[in-house]
Structure prediction request, 197 residues.
Amino acid sequence: MYRPIPYTKTKQKGVVLVVALIVLVAMTLAGLALMRSVDTSNIIAGNLAFHQSASYSGASGTEAAISWLQTNNTRTTLQASVTAQGYSAFRQDPGANQTWDAFWTAVLAAQASAPVVDAAGNTVTYAIQRMCNMAGSPTSPGIGCSRPFSAAVSSSSNSKQTSNIPLSVNNQIYYRITTRVAGPRNTVSFIQTIVAL
Prediction:
């Protein structure tokens, strides 16, 4: 015979509701962290793009400086400083308590080439320094210009060795080109190149 089970009224404890609220709060915090991470990644990617653009613009400034050097390398123009073109006939280095960044900012502010603004909005300036102790003819005593190393390769007539070949690069002088690029979002990039002419 069938007997009905008596119905007893039990109280709801609300445990499922508490667990659901905790999970909801955890998911909200995870969503906020993900949004913040994506925003940070976008900012970093944008800054890298501006830095890369500044580096490309700096290469054009370096090319302009090399072109100016090659044009003026045949006369006595490079024996004296030409401040309007950002050229110094002698090497300058930072002082005792001066950082390289502060030094180059000061040098480029004082004797840089005329600033050029490119299509990306970057302002490009450069400074050229002849790697000599002082201005004047590089053949004069005491000028002390840095030059590429020159040596002769010596040998005998043995098949394992070569004959004497003197390297004729003594007439070249080193020039240091420092290009400063200031771009959007306070992007500042320095590019330094050493050339021998």
About this structure: Residues 139 and 145 are 9 Å apart (CA to CA). The two ends are 114 Å apart (CA to CA).
